[in-house]
Amino acid sequence: MGKHCGGSREVGSRIQLDGAWSFQAQLDALRACNREEDWTFKENSVKEVTDRGRTEATARLQKALGESQLMPRQKRKAIELENDEDRKITEAMKAAEADVRKHVRALLAPLKDLEQVPRSADSDAAALAIFRQLRRLQVTVECLKSTRIAAELNKPRWRGANAAPEVRNAVTSLIKGWRSMYRAETGKSDVLDATRARKVRLQAVDLEEKIFAQYQRLKDYRRVMELVTEELMQCRDVSDRLLEGSLSGYDLVAKNAGRLRIAARAVDVVDVEEPELAQPVI
């Protein structure tokens, strides 16, 4: 509490009020003196990004990229054929697919016959010859589904403990290649392979560096990082293009930085700190 001293009252240790002030002036001075500081603005717009914050942002970007890569690819809408040449190309592709299925079924029949005979050097050699022919074919996901060749190769006769090592290795190699092709075409996978995981990690570091190069203040840095993360999670195509190199990290960051500036102008945000009220001097 202040204490009386003649015709004036001392408030705290910074200002003094006396009868020379009008009532409104004294009230305004008291309000300015007792007002609590609002540090929210300073924390958001003046505070700089810390090393720990950058590490956490990189981890968040890496997580978004990784989860995006596990999303199924969106099927592209069929483009209407405009001329006879386009139709001929499409028909040729369909014919090639049908031809591959025909060859796979032709190889599947003798393979099933070999499954019924006792294992011998001759039967193993015949099976290996079939596997070599299968490897040369451009097998697709639709071909695997229609012929069920993978189900046949997964049988114990070809992959079991009693199979010849060279037969088992050949089948394992075929199945592994088809599995990679299937995941690439459908986008169905529970985990990233080592190569993609490494690319995702490096791309996350690159994105964070490009964001930090433009924004060192916490408020804008955080917002641009959130916008980039949201875009990565909306569509796998963005992360695919980043990892393939057809979309640069700089362009992605610049695009979302532009979105931030447009949003700021739309709400007429003036990002300046209000000056403190001058203290009256008596």
From TrEMBL:
Primary location recorded for the protein, binned into one broad class: nucleus
Gene Ontology cellular component annotations, sorted alphabetically: nucleus
Domain TFIIS N-terminal: 106-185
Keyword Nucleus tagged: yes
Alphabetical UniProt keywords: Nucleus
Annotated compartments: Nucleus
Protein name: TFIIS N-terminal domain-containing protein
A Pfam family: Med26
